[in-house]
Please model this.
Amino acid sequence: MFHSSPSVPTVSGAESAEPDDLLAQAQTCIFRHVTGCVARDFGIDTQALSSATRGAPRVALARQVAMYLLHVDFALSFEAVGRMFGRDRTTVSHACRVIEDGRDDIWLDCRLAALELACCGSVQQQRAGLRGAR
Model:
């Protein structure tokens, strides 16, 4: 027997949205949130993270950190993260290796741990708030 599937929830007042559209919207929200947290922590403009050029070493490191967080903490693929930053998946893979290797430095490891808490913690709070509103 065939059961009808539940309707797909809408986002921002859209009448109907495809699952792929919802996924893209969710990934965009996560991207904005993570790049905002990283830019604030590094004291740079969020637009500098998506700049077509490499930029200053501090900007390049911040971009690598943001790529790492999006891939590791939010399970976005190298391809998806690369598209968000206007870069190739191999660039994201390299960034993740650089940051993972850098975690041996206690200063960087603590900074990453704080950023992970800031990024993931506020997303979990938002999800809990949405669950509580139902």
In short: Residues 19-133 form a domain with the Chromosomal Replication Initiator Protein Dnaa; Chain: A; fold (CATH 1.10.1750.10). The radius of gyration is 17 Å.
